[in-house]
Design goal:
The chain has three domains: 170 residues, Alpha Horseshoe (Serine Threonine Protein Phosphatase 5, Tetratricopeptide repeat), CATH 1.25.40; 34 residues; 111 residues, no CATH class. It is built from 16 helices and three strands.
């Protein structure tokens, strides 16, 4: 069950913090998720302490952490510190789209529309170039810039046109970002209210999906030698894995079924017996327990160990056969 109440978010944050203590090599993604849960629980001082802890440990992505820290600080009354962090990030000109999007949206959320527009435009100038094809992260920058420009009443430019063409939702981007929509919320006309509710649902759909699943829905993959060792040590798991070939087919078929059901952000995590035994010990549970397998997969995904599925047709198959995916488990894909 996904966390919903403040108490559930705090409990999940504390679980992630404990996991980060056990796996210090994965501390950064785990503590970032913990901080996000603390923010959702309105425990912003505790979230800020986690950001400080991460920044003191030479993180891999300091600009993103500073951006998240700035957003969090501004929300609970530390505007001057937040502004200083935002200025530092802009001066550093990071090549990652994520910190730019966070600081631009922070400024937008606090009605600093001109500064937000400047941030989005700086980021686009730096990252959206002819020799750098658009990816979802840079498309998000253009979408955010489009939204702020609509709020400022600015005419469409070339990047706005690109954002329009890249948008795939059922509601056109111009309509989603129309500043007059907010007036409809005060209407006495039920038809107008219903139409606005439909637009809001469409606008929030993608964000809700992204926020509700901060890491992939992942399926365990046991390499052949690891699976043999697992079943030798824990024969009760043989019912889960009748053979290695059956296991590989089950991985692919499970992922295809999830994709067919509309589940996105799918991944595969490669398991090993020592890692699984260490996880079982940390959970004070026997590795022979089949119920531990799904939790182990989720924990590996939370620690950033998942590989996105499906691979592109020409890349090596996830099963490590050495064949291209299209000629291996991706063949005759339904």
């Amino acid at each position: 069950m996904r966390p919903d109440t403040p108490a559930e978010h705090i409990a999940e944050a504390e679980r992630l913090i404990r996991t980060a203590t056990r796996y210090p090599e994965d501390q950064e993604p785990l503590l970032l998720q913990a901080a996000a849960h603390l923010e959702l629980a309105d425990a912003r001082d505790r979230a800020s302490a986690l950001y400080d802890q991460l920044l003191s440990a030479s993180p891999a992505d300091p600009h993103l952490i500073k951006a998240l820290q700035a957003s969090n600080l501004w929300e609970y009354g530390h505007e001057a510190e937040a502004r200083a962090l935002i200025s530092g990030i802009r001066a550093a000109s990071p090549k990652d789209p994520a910190p730019w999007e966070v600081i631009a949206e922070t400024l937008e959320a606090h009605d600093e529309l001109e500064a937000s527009h400047e941030c989005f435009t700086e980021a686009a100038s730096l990252l959206v170039t002819e020799d750098a094809p658009l990816i979802p992260a840079t498309t998000a920058l253009l979408t955010g810039r489009h939204r702020v420009r609509r709020l400022l009443g600015l005419p469409h430019d070339e990047w706005d046109m690109v954002a329009d063409t890249r948008h795939i939702g059922p509601i056109p981007l111009d309509e989603l970002h129309d500043p007059k929509r907010i007036w409809a919320l005060g209407s006495d006309d039920p038809a107008e209210l219903r139409a606005e509710i439909a637009r809001l649902r469409a606008e929030l759909g993608d964000r809700r999906a992204a926020l509700s699943r901060p890491f992939p829905v992942a399926i365990l993959h046991w390499p052949q030698h690891e699976l043999a060792e697992l079943l030798t040590s824990y024969p009760t798991l043989a019912a889960e894995y009748p053979s290695h070939e059956a296991h590989l087919l089950a991985v692919e078929s499970s992922l295809r079924a999830l994709a067919a059901s509309g589940t996105t952000n799918l991944g595969i995590v490669t398991a090993s017996v020592p890692s699984f035994e260490a996880f079982a010990a940390s959970e004070k549970t026997s590795p022979a327990s089949p119920s531990l397998l799904a939790e182990y997969a989720t924990t590996l995904a939370a620690r950033g160990r998942a590989t996105s599925w499906p691979p592109s047709p020409g890349t090596p198959c996830w099963c490590a056969s050495g064949k291209p995916y299209a000629e291996c488990h991706g063949a005759a894909k339904a």
